[in-house]
Design brief:
Strand content of chain B: under 5%
Radius of gyration of chain B: 23 Å
CATH architecture of chain B: Orthogonal Bundle
Number of strands of chain B: 0
CATH class of chain B: Mainly Alpha
Number of helices of chain A: 13
Number of helices of chain B: 14
CATH topology of chain A: MetI-like fold
Oligomer: heterodimer
Number of domains of chain B: 1
Helix content of chain B: over 70%
Largest sheet of chain A: 2 strands, antiparallel
Structural class of chain A: mainly alpha
Number of strands of chain A: 2
Number of domains of chain A: 1
Order of helices and strands of chain A: HHHHHHHEEHHHHHH
Radius of gyration of chain A: 24 Å
Chain lengths: 313, 306
Protein backbone atom coordinates (compact mmCIF):
# COMPACT_ATOMS: atom_id res chain seq x y z
CA UNK A 1 0.00 0.00 0.00
CA UNK A 2 2.72 2.49 0.92
CA UNK A 3 4.48 1.67 -2.31
CA UNK A 4 1.28 2.33 -4.24
CA UNK A 5 0.78 5.69 -2.57
CA UNK A 6 4.39 6.64 -3.19
CA UNK A 7 4.22 5.71 -6.86
CA UNK A 8 0.96 7.65 -7.32
CA UNK A 9 2.61 10.62 -5.59
CA UNK A 10 5.58 10.54 -7.94
CA UNK A 11 3.25 10.22 -10.90
CA UNK A 12 1.32 13.29 -9.73
CA UNK A 13 4.51 15.33 -9.45
CA UNK A 14 5.40 14.36 -13.03
CA UNK A 15 1.96 15.38 -14.23
CA UNK A 16 2.25 18.74 -12.49
CA UNK A 17 5.63 19.30 -14.14
CA UNK A 18 3.98 18.51 -17.48
CA UNK A 19 1.26 21.02 -16.68
CA UNK A 20 3.88 23.71 -16.03
CA UNK A 21 5.47 22.87 -19.37
CA UNK A 22 2.15 23.18 -21.20
CA UNK A 23 1.15 26.36 -19.38
CA UNK A 24 4.50 27.97 -20.18
CA UNK A 25 4.67 27.03 -23.83
CA UNK A 26 1.05 27.93 -24.46
CA UNK A 27 2.04 31.60 -24.44
CA UNK A 28 4.81 30.91 -26.96
CA UNK A 29 2.25 29.34 -29.32
CA UNK A 30 1.81 32.49 -31.39
CA UNK A 31 5.53 33.29 -31.36
CA UNK A 32 5.32 36.54 -29.40
CA UNK A 33 3.73 36.56 -25.94
CA UNK A 34 3.98 40.34 -25.60
CA UNK A 35 1.76 41.02 -28.62
CA UNK A 36 -0.94 38.93 -26.92
CA UNK A 37 -0.92 41.11 -23.86
CA UNK A 38 -0.72 44.60 -25.23
CA UNK A 39 -3.36 46.59 -27.06
CA UNK A 40 -3.14 46.94 -30.82
CA UNK A 41 -2.66 50.70 -30.54
CA UNK A 42 0.54 50.44 -28.51
CA UNK A 43 3.66 52.05 -29.98
CA UNK A 44 6.71 49.88 -30.72
CA UNK A 45 8.44 51.60 -27.77
CA UNK A 46 5.65 50.49 -25.43
CA UNK A 47 5.91 46.94 -26.74
CA UNK A 48 9.67 46.91 -26.15
CA UNK A 49 9.26 48.39 -22.67
CA UNK A 50 6.76 45.69 -21.68
CA UNK A 51 8.96 43.00 -23.21
CA UNK A 52 11.84 44.27 -21.09
CA UNK A 53 9.71 44.55 -17.96
CA UNK A 54 8.27 41.03 -18.22
CA UNK A 55 11.57 39.48 -19.25
CA UNK A 56 10.37 38.19 -22.61
CA UNK A 57 13.54 39.52 -24.25
CA UNK A 58 15.55 36.74 -22.60
CA UNK A 59 16.21 33.41 -24.31
CA UNK A 60 13.24 31.02 -23.99
CA UNK A 61 15.28 28.52 -21.96
CA UNK A 62 16.14 31.20 -19.37
CA UNK A 63 12.50 32.32 -19.25
CA UNK A 64 11.40 28.74 -18.69
CA UNK A 65 13.94 28.26 -15.90
CA UNK A 66 12.79 31.30 -14.01
CA UNK A 67 9.13 30.37 -14.62
CA UNK A 68 9.68 26.94 -13.06
CA UNK A 69 11.71 28.38 -10.21
CA UNK A 70 8.91 30.81 -9.43
CA UNK A 71 6.15 28.22 -9.86
CA UNK A 72 7.70 25.85 -7.35
CA UNK A 73 7.36 28.54 -4.68
CA UNK A 74 3.88 29.50 -5.85
CA UNK A 75 5.07 32.67 -7.57
CA UNK A 76 3.47 33.14 -11.00
CA UNK A 77 4.37 36.80 -11.35
CA UNK A 78 2.09 39.77 -11.10
CA UNK A 79 -1.24 40.32 -12.73
CA UNK A 80 -0.75 43.10 -15.28
CA UNK A 81 -4.17 44.46 -14.57
CA UNK A 82 -4.40 44.24 -10.81
CA UNK A 83 -0.70 44.88 -10.08
CA UNK A 84 -0.85 42.15 -7.46
CA UNK A 85 0.77 38.73 -7.28
CA UNK A 86 -1.38 36.31 -9.30
CA UNK A 87 -1.44 33.72 -6.53
CA UNK A 88 -2.82 36.23 -4.00
CA UNK A 89 -5.69 37.04 -6.35
CA UNK A 90 -6.44 33.35 -6.81
CA UNK A 91 -6.46 32.65 -3.08
CA UNK A 92 -8.78 35.60 -2.49
CA UNK A 93 -11.28 34.15 -4.98
CA UNK A 94 -11.00 30.60 -3.74
CA UNK A 95 -13.60 30.65 -0.91
CA UNK A 96 -16.41 31.65 -3.28
CA UNK A 97 -15.55 28.84 -5.69
CA UNK A 98 -15.29 26.28 -2.91
CA UNK A 99 -18.68 27.35 -1.58
CA UNK A 100 -20.23 26.97 -5.04
CA UNK A 101 -18.55 23.65 -5.85
CA UNK A 102 -19.30 22.12 -2.46
CA UNK A 103 -22.96 23.13 -2.62
CA UNK A 104 -23.24 21.77 -6.15
CA UNK A 105 -21.64 18.49 -5.09
CA UNK A 106 -23.95 18.23 -2.09
CA UNK A 107 -27.04 18.88 -4.23
CA UNK A 108 -26.04 16.26 -6.77
CA UNK A 109 -25.27 13.69 -4.05
CA UNK A 110 -28.51 14.30 -2.18
CA UNK A 111 -30.68 14.20 -5.29
CA UNK A 112 -28.67 11.86 -7.52
CA UNK A 113 -27.75 8.91 -5.33
CA UNK A 114 -31.22 8.14 -3.88
CA UNK A 115 -32.72 8.35 -7.37
CA UNK A 116 -30.06 6.00 -8.72
CA UNK A 117 -30.61 3.56 -5.86
CA UNK A 118 -34.38 3.42 -6.32
CA UNK A 119 -34.03 3.15 -10.09
CA UNK A 120 -31.44 0.39 -9.89
CA UNK A 121 -33.59 -1.67 -7.52
CA UNK A 122 -36.74 -1.25 -9.63
CA UNK A 123 -35.77 -1.53 -13.30
CA UNK A 124 -38.55 -0.45 -15.64
CA UNK A 125 -40.38 1.57 -13.00
CA UNK A 126 -41.28 5.26 -13.14
CA UNK A 127 -38.19 6.07 -11.06
CA UNK A 128 -36.03 4.14 -13.50
CA UNK A 129 -37.41 6.18 -16.38
CA UNK A 130 -36.86 9.39 -14.42
CA UNK A 131 -33.28 8.40 -13.62
CA UNK A 132 -32.50 7.62 -17.24
CA UNK A 133 -34.03 10.95 -18.25
CA UNK A 134 -31.91 12.77 -15.65
CA UNK A 135 -28.77 11.02 -16.85
CA UNK A 136 -29.44 11.96 -20.46
CA UNK A 137 -30.53 15.54 -19.77
CA UNK A 138 -27.61 16.12 -17.43
CA UNK A 139 -25.35 15.37 -20.35
CA UNK A 140 -27.20 17.40 -22.95
CA UNK A 141 -28.54 20.53 -21.24
CA UNK A 142 -25.79 23.17 -21.37
CA UNK A 143 -25.41 24.54 -17.84
CA UNK A 144 -24.96 28.09 -19.14
CA UNK A 145 -28.37 27.89 -20.82
CA UNK A 146 -30.02 26.27 -17.81
CA UNK A 147 -28.61 29.05 -15.61
CA UNK A 148 -30.19 31.72 -17.83
CA UNK A 149 -33.58 30.00 -17.79
CA UNK A 150 -33.48 29.49 -14.01
CA UNK A 151 -32.65 33.17 -13.49
CA UNK A 152 -35.52 34.13 -15.75
CA UNK A 153 -38.05 31.93 -13.97
CA UNK A 154 -36.97 31.94 -10.33
CA UNK A 155 -35.30 35.32 -9.96
CA UNK A 156 -36.98 37.61 -12.48
CA UNK A 157 -40.53 36.23 -12.48
CA UNK A 158 -40.91 34.62 -9.07
CA UNK A 159 -38.37 36.73 -7.20
CA UNK A 160 -37.27 33.85 -4.98
CA UNK A 161 -33.53 34.33 -5.45
CA UNK A 162 -31.21 37.23 -6.23
CA UNK A 163 -30.39 37.43 -9.97
CA UNK A 164 -26.66 37.58 -9.37
CA UNK A 165 -23.92 38.05 -6.77
CA UNK A 166 -22.82 36.25 -3.65
CA UNK A 167 -24.37 37.18 -0.33
CA UNK A 168 -22.88 35.73 2.79
CA UNK A 169 -24.00 35.59 6.34
CA UNK A 170 -21.52 35.95 9.18
CA UNK A 171 -22.16 34.20 12.47
CA UNK A 172 -19.50 34.14 15.19
CA UNK A 173 -16.82 34.99 12.64
CA UNK A 174 -17.86 32.17 10.32
CA UNK A 175 -18.86 33.06 6.78
CA UNK A 176 -21.91 31.07 5.83
CA UNK A 177 -23.63 30.74 2.46
CA UNK A 178 -27.09 32.14 1.84
CA UNK A 179 -29.75 31.21 -0.72
CA UNK A 180 -27.80 33.21 -3.32
CA UNK A 181 -25.69 30.08 -3.88
CA UNK A 182 -28.64 27.83 -4.75
CA UNK A 183 -29.35 28.78 -8.36
CA UNK A 184 -25.73 28.77 -9.52
CA UNK A 185 -25.04 25.57 -7.58
CA UNK A 186 -28.06 23.79 -9.04
CA UNK A 187 -27.14 24.81 -12.60
CA UNK A 188 -23.63 23.57 -12.01
CA UNK A 189 -24.73 20.33 -10.37
CA UNK A 190 -26.94 19.00 -13.16
CA UNK A 191 -24.15 17.28 -15.08
CA UNK A 192 -22.68 15.69 -11.95
CA UNK A 193 -26.13 14.66 -10.80
CA UNK A 194 -26.74 12.90 -14.12
CA UNK A 195 -23.44 11.06 -13.84
CA UNK A 196 -24.16 9.98 -10.26
CA UNK A 197 -27.66 8.76 -11.11
CA UNK A 198 -26.40 6.81 -14.10
CA UNK A 199 -23.57 5.31 -12.16
CA UNK A 200 -25.46 4.41 -9.00
CA UNK A 201 -28.23 2.84 -11.05
CA UNK A 202 -25.93 0.60 -13.06
CA UNK A 203 -23.82 -0.30 -9.99
CA UNK A 204 -26.91 -1.42 -8.06
CA UNK A 205 -28.25 -3.37 -11.03
CA UNK A 206 -24.94 -5.13 -11.47
CA UNK A 207 -24.42 -5.95 -7.79
CA UNK A 208 -27.99 -7.26 -7.40
CA UNK A 209 -27.13 -10.19 -9.64
CA UNK A 210 -23.75 -10.96 -8.01
CA UNK A 211 -23.20 -14.37 -6.45
CA UNK A 212 -22.62 -13.00 -2.97
CA UNK A 213 -26.00 -11.28 -2.99
CA UNK A 214 -27.72 -14.50 -4.02
CA UNK A 215 -25.81 -16.35 -1.31
CA UNK A 216 -26.91 -13.81 1.28
CA UNK A 217 -30.54 -14.18 0.27
CA UNK A 218 -30.32 -17.98 0.23
CA UNK A 219 -28.98 -17.92 3.78
CA UNK A 220 -32.28 -16.30 4.69
CA UNK A 221 -30.97 -12.84 5.54
CA UNK A 222 -33.69 -10.19 5.53
CA UNK A 223 -34.00 -8.10 2.39
CA UNK A 224 -33.26 -4.85 4.21
CA UNK A 225 -30.07 -6.24 5.69
CA UNK A 226 -28.85 -7.62 2.36
CA UNK A 227 -29.60 -4.28 0.79
CA UNK A 228 -27.65 -2.24 3.30
CA UNK A 229 -24.80 -4.63 3.99
CA UNK A 230 -24.14 -6.14 0.61
CA UNK A 231 -25.61 -3.96 -2.08
CA UNK A 232 -25.15 -0.43 -0.72
CA UNK A 233 -21.70 -1.00 0.67
CA UNK A 234 -20.40 -2.43 -2.56
CA UNK A 235 -22.07 0.23 -4.67
CA UNK A 236 -20.46 2.93 -2.53
CA UNK A 237 -16.90 1.92 -3.42
CA UNK A 238 -16.90 2.86 -7.11
CA UNK A 239 -18.87 6.00 -6.24
CA UNK A 240 -15.76 7.31 -4.44
CA UNK A 241 -13.93 7.71 -7.71
CA UNK A 242 -16.86 9.36 -9.48
CA UNK A 243 -17.31 11.84 -6.64
CA UNK A 244 -13.59 12.65 -6.56
CA UNK A 245 -13.36 13.28 -10.30
CA UNK A 246 -16.58 15.29 -10.31
CA UNK A 247 -15.47 17.49 -7.42
CA UNK A 248 -12.33 18.34 -9.37
CA UNK A 249 -14.49 19.20 -12.36
CA UNK A 250 -16.79 21.35 -10.22
CA UNK A 251 -13.88 23.24 -8.67
CA UNK A 252 -12.45 24.12 -12.07
CA UNK A 253 -15.43 24.14 -14.38
CA UNK A 254 -17.51 27.03 -13.20
CA UNK A 255 -16.43 29.69 -15.70
CA UNK A 256 -19.90 29.94 -17.30
CA UNK A 257 -21.90 29.80 -14.12
CA UNK A 258 -19.67 32.25 -12.27
CA UNK A 259 -19.81 34.69 -15.17
CA UNK A 260 -23.59 34.51 -15.49
CA UNK A 261 -24.16 35.01 -11.77
CA UNK A 262 -21.21 37.42 -11.27
CA UNK A 263 -20.02 34.97 -8.62
CA UNK A 264 -16.68 36.25 -7.30
CA UNK A 265 -14.74 33.01 -7.74
CA UNK A 266 -11.97 31.52 -9.85
CA UNK A 267 -14.07 31.02 -12.98
CA UNK A 268 -15.03 34.64 -12.98
CA UNK A 269 -11.40 35.64 -12.45
CA UNK A 270 -10.42 33.49 -15.45
CA UNK A 271 -13.07 35.08 -17.68
CA UNK A 272 -12.01 38.56 -16.52
CA UNK A 273 -8.32 37.93 -17.02
CA UNK A 274 -8.93 36.58 -20.53
CA UNK A 275 -10.97 39.68 -21.32
CA UNK A 276 -8.11 41.85 -20.01
CA UNK A 277 -5.46 39.78 -21.85
CA UNK A 278 -3.86 39.34 -18.43
CA UNK A 279 -2.04 36.14 -19.37
CA UNK A 280 0.22 35.84 -16.33
CA UNK A 281 -2.96 35.48 -14.31
CA UNK A 282 -4.48 33.05 -16.85
CA UNK A 283 -1.36 30.87 -16.57
CA UNK A 284 -1.57 30.90 -12.79
CA UNK A 285 -5.27 29.97 -12.81
CA UNK A 286 -4.72 27.17 -15.33
CA UNK A 287 -1.93 25.73 -13.19
CA UNK A 288 -3.86 26.14 -9.97
CA UNK A 289 -6.97 24.38 -11.34
CA UNK A 290 -4.82 21.55 -12.66
CA UNK A 291 -3.15 21.27 -9.29
CA UNK A 292 -6.53 20.95 -7.58
CA UNK A 293 -7.67 18.30 -10.07
CA UNK A 294 -4.46 16.27 -9.84
CA UNK A 295 -4.49 16.47 -6.06
CA UNK A 296 -8.13 15.32 -5.86
CA UNK A 297 -7.41 12.47 -8.28
CA UNK A 298 -4.56 11.38 -6.04
CA UNK A 299 -6.73 11.47 -2.92
CA UNK A 300 -9.49 9.60 -4.75
CA UNK A 301 -7.18 6.82 -5.86
CA UNK A 302 -5.80 6.39 -2.37
CA UNK A 303 -9.28 6.39 -0.83
CA UNK A 304 -10.39 3.85 -3.42
CA UNK A 305 -7.49 1.55 -2.66
CA UNK A 306 -8.18 1.81 1.07
CA UNK A 307 -11.91 1.18 0.68
CA UNK A 308 -11.81 -1.82 -1.62
CA UNK A 309 -10.05 -4.83 -0.08
CA UNK A 310 -10.16 -6.61 -3.46
CA UNK A 311 -7.63 -4.14 -4.82
CA UNK A 312 -4.06 -4.93 -3.84
CA UNK A 313 -1.12 -3.17 -5.35
CA UNK B 1 -21.35 -10.15 -35.75
CA UNK B 2 -17.94 -11.16 -34.44
CA UNK B 3 -16.87 -13.72 -32.01
CA UNK B 4 -13.19 -13.34 -31.10
CA UNK B 5 -12.45 -16.90 -32.14
CA UNK B 6 -14.23 -16.68 -35.48
CA UNK B 7 -13.38 -13.06 -36.30
CA UNK B 8 -11.64 -13.98 -39.54
CA UNK B 9 -14.55 -15.73 -41.15
CA UNK B 10 -17.09 -13.15 -40.09
CA UNK B 11 -15.00 -10.31 -41.50
CA UNK B 12 -15.07 -11.84 -44.94
CA UNK B 13 -18.78 -12.36 -44.65
CA UNK B 14 -19.23 -8.69 -43.86
CA UNK B 15 -17.29 -7.63 -46.92
CA UNK B 16 -19.09 -9.89 -49.36
CA UNK B 17 -22.53 -9.26 -48.02
CA UNK B 18 -22.79 -5.60 -47.09
CA UNK B 19 -26.47 -5.55 -47.97
CA UNK B 20 -27.52 -8.20 -45.51
CA UNK B 21 -25.43 -6.50 -42.83
CA UNK B 22 -27.25 -3.23 -43.49
CA UNK B 23 -30.72 -4.75 -43.48
CA UNK B 24 -29.84 -6.60 -40.28
CA UNK B 25 -28.68 -3.34 -38.69
CA UNK B 26 -31.83 -1.62 -39.86
CA UNK B 27 -34.01 -4.31 -38.29
CA UNK B 28 -32.17 -3.85 -34.99
CA UNK B 29 -32.66 -0.09 -35.20
CA UNK B 30 -36.37 -0.37 -35.99
CA UNK B 31 -36.77 -2.44 -32.84
CA UNK B 32 -35.10 0.18 -30.62
CA UNK B 33 -37.40 3.20 -30.36
CA UNK B 34 -34.90 5.41 -28.54
CA UNK B 35 -32.19 4.70 -31.10
CA UNK B 36 -34.62 5.40 -33.93
CA UNK B 37 -35.63 8.70 -32.33
CA UNK B 38 -31.94 9.59 -32.01
CA UNK B 39 -31.29 8.84 -35.67
CA UNK B 40 -34.28 10.91 -36.80
CA UNK B 41 -33.21 13.85 -34.61
CA UNK B 42 -29.67 13.67 -35.92
CA UNK B 43 -30.88 13.50 -39.53
CA UNK B 44 -33.07 16.58 -38.99
CA UNK B 45 -29.95 18.48 -37.90
CA UNK B 46 -27.90 17.19 -40.84
CA UNK B 47 -30.65 18.05 -43.35
CA UNK B 48 -30.97 21.54 -41.85
CA UNK B 49 -27.27 22.09 -42.33
CA UNK B 50 -27.15 20.80 -45.90
CA UNK B 51 -30.30 22.52 -47.14
CA UNK B 52 -30.06 25.63 -44.93
CA UNK B 53 -30.64 28.12 -47.81
CA UNK B 54 -33.78 26.26 -48.94
CA UNK B 55 -35.24 25.75 -45.46
CA UNK B 56 -34.63 29.18 -43.97
CA UNK B 57 -37.53 31.59 -44.36
CA UNK B 58 -35.16 34.58 -44.26
CA UNK B 59 -31.56 35.60 -44.78
CA UNK B 60 -29.94 34.84 -41.38
CA UNK B 61 -27.74 37.93 -41.62
CA UNK B 62 -30.31 40.44 -42.80
CA UNK B 63 -30.97 43.05 -40.15
CA UNK B 64 -34.26 44.90 -40.02
CA UNK B 65 -34.57 47.18 -37.04
CA UNK B 66 -38.24 47.87 -37.82
CA UNK B 67 -38.99 44.23 -36.98
CA UNK B 68 -36.48 43.88 -34.15
CA UNK B 69 -37.34 41.94 -30.97
CA UNK B 70 -40.52 40.40 -32.34
CA UNK B 71 -41.77 37.56 -30.12
CA UNK B 72 -42.43 34.06 -31.51
CA UNK B 73 -45.56 33.46 -33.60
CA UNK B 74 -47.67 31.92 -30.83
CA UNK B 75 -47.26 34.74 -28.33
CA UNK B 76 -48.95 38.11 -28.39
CA UNK B 77 -47.55 40.46 -31.00
CA UNK B 78 -45.81 37.69 -32.92
CA UNK B 79 -46.41 36.92 -36.57
CA UNK B 80 -46.18 33.79 -38.66
CA UNK B 81 -43.68 35.70 -40.77
CA UNK B 82 -41.03 35.08 -38.07
CA UNK B 83 -42.07 31.76 -36.45
CA UNK B 84 -39.52 31.96 -33.61
CA UNK B 85 -39.38 35.74 -33.50
CA UNK B 86 -36.49 38.08 -34.25
CA UNK B 87 -33.41 39.12 -32.30
CA UNK B 88 -32.25 42.53 -31.14
CA UNK B 89 -31.21 43.48 -34.68
CA UNK B 90 -34.35 42.15 -36.35
CA UNK B 91 -32.72 39.00 -37.71
CA UNK B 92 -34.97 35.95 -38.03
CA UNK B 93 -34.19 33.51 -35.21
CA UNK B 94 -35.41 30.36 -36.99
CA UNK B 95 -33.17 31.08 -39.98
CA UNK B 96 -30.20 31.71 -37.71
CA UNK B 97 -30.79 28.44 -35.87
CA UNK B 98 -30.96 26.56 -39.17
CA UNK B 99 -27.73 28.16 -40.35
CA UNK B 100 -26.21 27.56 -36.91
CA UNK B 101 -26.30 23.81 -37.56
CA UNK B 102 -23.58 24.39 -40.16
CA UNK B 103 -21.06 25.74 -37.63
CA UNK B 104 -21.94 23.05 -35.07
CA UNK B 105 -21.71 20.13 -37.47
CA UNK B 106 -18.58 21.45 -39.19
CA UNK B 107 -16.78 21.79 -35.87
CA UNK B 108 -18.06 18.41 -34.66
CA UNK B 109 -17.30 16.55 -37.89
CA UNK B 110 -13.83 17.90 -38.63
CA UNK B 111 -12.88 17.97 -34.94
CA UNK B 112 -13.71 14.27 -34.64
CA UNK B 113 -12.02 13.54 -37.98
CA UNK B 114 -8.72 15.04 -36.75
CA UNK B 115 -8.97 13.53 -33.26
CA UNK B 116 -9.96 10.06 -34.44
CA UNK B 117 -7.48 9.69 -37.28
CA UNK B 118 -4.51 10.86 -35.21
CA UNK B 119 -5.81 9.11 -32.10
CA UNK B 120 -6.22 5.77 -33.88
CA UNK B 121 -2.75 5.99 -35.43
CA UNK B 122 -1.08 6.85 -32.12
CA UNK B 123 -3.15 4.29 -30.22
CA UNK B 124 -2.21 1.55 -32.69
CA UNK B 125 1.47 2.34 -32.26
CA UNK B 126 1.19 2.37 -28.47
CA UNK B 127 -0.85 -0.81 -28.22
CA UNK B 128 1.08 -2.73 -30.85
CA UNK B 129 4.60 -1.66 -29.94
CA UNK B 130 4.22 -1.78 -26.17
CA UNK B 131 7.28 -1.17 -23.94
CA UNK B 132 8.89 2.25 -23.74
CA UNK B 133 6.96 3.65 -26.73
CA UNK B 134 3.71 2.75 -25.01
CA UNK B 135 4.83 4.25 -21.70
CA UNK B 136 5.86 7.55 -23.28
CA UNK B 137 2.63 7.86 -25.27
CA UNK B 138 0.42 6.94 -22.33
CA UNK B 139 2.33 9.36 -20.09
CA UNK B 140 1.35 12.16 -22.47
CA UNK B 141 -2.23 10.90 -22.71
CA UNK B 142 -2.65 10.74 -18.94
CA UNK B 143 -1.16 14.20 -18.60
CA UNK B 144 -3.67 15.74 -21.01
CA UNK B 145 -6.59 13.83 -19.52
CA UNK B 146 -5.66 15.06 -16.05
CA UNK B 147 -6.04 18.71 -17.08
CA UNK B 148 -9.25 20.61 -16.36
CA UNK B 149 -10.50 20.52 -19.96
CA UNK B 150 -12.60 23.66 -20.09
CA UNK B 151 -9.97 25.88 -18.49
CA UNK B 152 -7.38 24.85 -21.07
CA UNK B 153 -9.72 25.05 -24.04
CA UNK B 154 -10.64 28.59 -23.03
CA UNK B 155 -6.96 29.41 -22.50
CA UNK B 156 -5.92 28.16 -25.96
CA UNK B 157 -8.90 29.80 -27.66
CA UNK B 158 -8.00 33.13 -26.06
CA UNK B 159 -4.44 32.86 -27.33
CA UNK B 160 -5.17 31.66 -30.86
CA UNK B 161 -8.05 34.04 -31.47
CA UNK B 162 -11.49 33.25 -32.77
CA UNK B 163 -11.98 31.61 -36.14
CA UNK B 164 -13.68 28.48 -37.39
CA UNK B 165 -10.36 26.82 -38.28
CA UNK B 166 -8.91 27.52 -34.83
CA UNK B 167 -11.95 26.10 -33.07
CA UNK B 168 -11.76 22.91 -35.18
CA UNK B 169 -8.03 22.58 -34.49
CA UNK B 170 -8.46 23.15 -30.74
CA UNK B 171 -11.14 20.47 -30.38
CA UNK B 172 -9.44 18.15 -32.87
CA UNK B 173 -6.12 18.17 -31.03
CA UNK B 174 -7.33 18.26 -27.43
CA UNK B 175 -9.56 15.26 -28.10
CA UNK B 176 -6.81 12.98 -29.44
CA UNK B 177 -6.01 11.35 -26.04
CA UNK B 178 -9.47 9.81 -25.64
CA UNK B 179 -9.19 8.10 -29.02
CA UNK B 180 -5.66 6.96 -28.20
CA UNK B 181 -6.80 5.40 -24.96
CA UNK B 182 -9.73 3.49 -26.47
CA UNK B 183 -7.71 2.31 -29.49
CA UNK B 184 -4.79 1.17 -27.37
CA UNK B 185 -7.07 -0.72 -25.00
CA UNK B 186 -8.79 -2.54 -27.84
CA UNK B 187 -5.50 -3.33 -29.58
CA UNK B 188 -4.01 -4.82 -26.42
CA UNK B 189 -7.14 -6.93 -25.91
CA UNK B 190 -7.02 -8.14 -29.53
CA UNK B 191 -3.27 -8.72 -29.65
CA UNK B 192 -3.59 -11.63 -27.28
CA UNK B 193 -6.86 -12.92 -28.72
CA UNK B 194 -7.24 -16.07 -30.78
CA UNK B 195 -7.74 -14.55 -34.18
CA UNK B 196 -4.63 -12.37 -34.08
CA UNK B 197 -2.51 -15.22 -32.76
CA UNK B 198 -3.74 -17.60 -35.44
CA UNK B 199 -3.09 -14.97 -38.12
CA UNK B 200 0.44 -14.62 -36.81
CA UNK B 201 0.83 -18.40 -36.67
CA UNK B 202 0.09 -18.73 -40.39
CA UNK B 203 2.76 -16.09 -41.08
CA UNK B 204 0.78 -12.85 -41.52
CA UNK B 205 2.92 -9.69 -41.47
CA UNK B 206 2.39 -6.95 -38.88
CA UNK B 207 0.89 -4.69 -41.55
CA UNK B 208 -1.56 -7.39 -42.56
CA UNK B 209 -2.54 -8.07 -38.97
CA UNK B 210 -3.13 -4.38 -38.33
CA UNK B 211 -5.01 -3.59 -41.52
CA UNK B 212 -7.08 -6.71 -42.03
CA UNK B 213 -7.59 -7.94 -38.50
CA UNK B 214 -7.24 -5.16 -35.96
CA UNK B 215 -8.60 -2.10 -37.79
CA UNK B 216 -11.90 -3.68 -38.90
CA UNK B 217 -12.59 -4.70 -35.32
CA UNK B 218 -11.88 -1.17 -34.12
CA UNK B 219 -14.73 0.27 -36.18
CA UNK B 220 -17.38 -0.49 -33.56
CA UNK B 221 -15.85 1.18 -30.52
CA UNK B 222 -14.48 4.08 -32.57
CA UNK B 223 -17.79 4.90 -34.27
CA UNK B 224 -19.54 4.85 -30.91
CA UNK B 225 -16.91 7.06 -29.31
CA UNK B 226 -16.94 9.41 -32.31
CA UNK B 227 -20.69 9.96 -31.91
CA UNK B 228 -20.34 10.92 -28.27
CA UNK B 229 -17.28 13.08 -28.90
CA UNK B 230 -18.96 14.90 -31.78
CA UNK B 231 -21.88 15.68 -29.52
CA UNK B 232 -19.49 16.90 -26.81
CA UNK B 233 -17.66 19.16 -29.31
CA UNK B 234 -20.94 20.74 -30.43
CA UNK B 235 -21.68 21.37 -26.77
CA UNK B 236 -18.24 22.91 -26.08
CA UNK B 237 -18.31 24.99 -29.27
CA UNK B 238 -21.55 26.58 -28.09
CA UNK B 239 -19.89 27.20 -24.72
CA UNK B 240 -16.91 28.94 -26.31
CA UNK B 241 -19.34 30.97 -28.43
CA UNK B 242 -21.17 31.97 -25.27
CA UNK B 243 -17.90 33.40 -23.93
CA UNK B 244 -17.21 35.10 -27.26
CA UNK B 245 -14.24 32.81 -27.98
CA UNK B 246 -15.59 30.74 -30.89
CA UNK B 247 -16.39 31.83 -34.45
CA UNK B 248 -16.62 35.62 -35.07
CA UNK B 249 -19.94 37.21 -34.05
CA UNK B 250 -20.84 37.85 -37.70
CA UNK B 251 -21.35 34.10 -38.27
CA UNK B 252 -24.68 32.72 -37.03
CA UNK B 253 -23.86 30.02 -34.46
CA UNK B 254 -25.83 28.81 -31.48
CA UNK B 255 -23.20 29.96 -28.99
CA UNK B 256 -23.07 33.45 -30.51
CA UNK B 257 -26.87 33.64 -30.44
CA UNK B 258 -26.90 32.66 -26.76
CA UNK B 259 -24.24 35.25 -25.97
CA UNK B 260 -26.21 38.08 -27.55
CA UNK B 261 -29.52 36.77 -26.20
CA UNK B 262 -28.15 36.85 -22.67
CA UNK B 263 -28.12 40.67 -22.69
CA UNK B 264 -31.84 40.75 -23.53
CA UNK B 265 -32.82 37.87 -21.26
CA UNK B 266 -35.31 39.75 -19.11
CA UNK B 267 -37.21 41.69 -21.78
CA UNK B 268 -36.85 39.39 -24.82
CA UNK B 269 -36.20 35.90 -23.39
CA UNK B 270 -36.87 34.01 -26.65
CA UNK B 271 -33.61 35.25 -28.19
CA UNK B 272 -31.59 33.07 -25.78
CA UNK B 273 -34.15 30.29 -25.32
CA UNK B 274 -34.32 28.83 -28.83
CA UNK B 275 -30.62 28.33 -29.55
CA UNK B 276 -30.38 26.51 -26.21
CA UNK B 277 -33.20 24.19 -27.23
CA UNK B 278 -31.39 23.55 -30.52
CA UNK B 279 -28.26 22.50 -28.60
CA UNK B 280 -30.30 20.16 -26.38
CA UNK B 281 -32.13 18.68 -29.38
CA UNK B 282 -28.86 17.89 -31.15
CA UNK B 283 -27.23 16.54 -28.01
CA UNK B 284 -30.19 14.30 -27.18
CA UNK B 285 -30.30 12.93 -30.71
CA UNK B 286 -26.60 12.14 -30.79
CA UNK B 287 -26.57 10.60 -27.31
CA UNK B 288 -29.52 8.33 -28.07
CA UNK B 289 -27.85 7.36 -31.34
CA UNK B 290 -24.57 6.73 -29.53
CA UNK B 291 -26.20 4.55 -26.87
CA UNK B 292 -27.84 2.51 -29.61
CA UNK B 293 -24.61 2.20 -31.61
CA UNK B 294 -22.81 1.00 -28.51
CA UNK B 295 -25.37 -1.77 -28.08
CA UNK B 296 -25.40 -2.79 -31.73
CA UNK B 297 -21.75 -2.50 -32.69
CA UNK B 298 -20.54 -4.36 -29.64
CA UNK B 299 -22.11 -7.82 -29.77
CA UNK B 300 -21.03 -8.57 -26.23
CA UNK B 301 -23.13 -5.64 -25.02
CA UNK B 302 -26.08 -6.84 -27.11
CA UNK B 303 -26.23 -10.13 -25.33
CA UNK B 304 -26.10 -8.49 -21.90
CA UNK B 305 -29.02 -6.22 -22.74
CA UNK B 306 -32.34 -7.57 -21.64
Amino acid sequence: MQRYILSRLIQSVFILFGVLLIVFFMLQLTGDPVSLMISRHATPEDVEALREELGFNRPVAVQFGSFIAGAVTGDFGKSLRHKQPAMDLILSRLPATIELAATALLLSLVLGIPLGLVAGSNPGSFWDLLSRGTGLLGQTIPNFWLALILVLVFSVHLGWFPTFGRDTWTVLGLTLPTRSVLLPAFSLSLFTMGQLVRFTRSAVMEIRSEDYVRTAYSKGIAHRKVYIRHILRNAAIPLISIVGVQFGYLLSGSIYIETIFSWPGLGNLLAESIGNRDFALVQAIAFFSSFVVVFLNLLTDIAYALADPRIRY
Amino acid sequence: MTHPASGLRVDQEKQTDVWSFLTYTWRLLARDKAGMAGLVMFLIVVISAVFAPLLSPHDPLKQNLRFAKHPPAWSEGGSIHHPLGTDNLGRDILSRIIYGTRVSLTVGFFGVLIASSLGIAIGLVAGYAGGTTDNVIMGGVNLVLALPYLVFVVFIAAILGSSLINVILIFGFTDIPIFVRITRGEVIKMRSSGFVESARAIGATDARIIFSHILPNLIGPIVTLATFEMSAMIFYEAGLGFLGLSVPPSIPSWGNMLASGRQYLVSYPWIATFPGLAIIFTGLGMNLLGDWLRDVLDPRMRRVKK
